Structure formats: C-alpha cells, structure tokens
Amino acid sequence: QVQLVESGGGLVQAGGSLRLSCSASGSFFRFNVMGWYRQAPGKQRELVATAARGGNTNYADAAKGRFTISRDNARDTVFLQMNSLKPEDTADYYCYAAITVGGAGAYWGQGTQVTVSS
Question: Do 39 and 45 meet the contact criterion of CB atoms below 8 Å apart?
Fold first, then answer.
C-alpha cells in the first residue's frame, strides 16, 4: 500500500520560513514526479511545485523566487523550502507523487496545514 507521509507544516509569521517534507513508501515502481499542491479554504487545489526524477522542476508563478523544491531520489522523499511566506500562502499543502509525467499511478498525501499570520 502506497503511503505519502508529510511533515513540517505549522504557524509562522509573514516573512518567515517553513520546510515541508514528504516521504513515499510502499510503491513497487519509482515515482518519476513528486511535488506539492495546496488548497486554501474555499479555493481549488493548485500546483505549487513539482520535481522530476531527472532534475527538472516546475513552479507556479506564486512560488517562483520564494520556494525551492528538492528531492532525495534514493529515499523517494521530496522537500519544499518556503521562504518569505505571505498570508496568502496559508493553505493545506498536499504531497503528490506519480509514476509517470502524465500523472499515471498518482498518489496524494493527507495534507499538512500551513498558516501564515500577518
């Protein structure tokens, strides 16, 4: 059974930093893509950043310049370093992992809450 276990959320003041971690386990296949999405209250889930096994990364405009995604391929772990946090970054952050770039064999974590106070 595939599990994605997230950690690192919490409450931080505007301008602060948080580092999210997500470890995947239980998959027979390696995850080609791992990343993060977020969902704020009353809004749709949206992309934050993804990282492919080969090193390519993709960021939402809101994340560029402030967030950095990285992976430990050997441990199927993905990290999201979030700096210069803003109140509008407040959301539940979900880890995402997929076997193919197209999204086949995709799994989601349970979510970790990030709250940025002004």
Answer: yes
Inter-residue contact 28 to 95 (CB < 8 Å): no
Cβ-proximal residues to 42 (8 Å cutoff; 6+ apart), any chain: none
Q: Do 44 and 103 touch, CB atoms closer than 8 A? A: no
Per-residue pLDDT of the chain (118 residues), as tens digits, is: 899 999 999 999 999 999 999 999 888 888 999 999 999 999 999 999 999 999 999 999 999 999 999 999 999 999 999 999 999 999 999 999 999 888 888 999 999 999 999 9
C-alpha 23/C-alpha 52 separation (Å) is 15
Rounded Cα distance between 7 and 66, Å, is 19
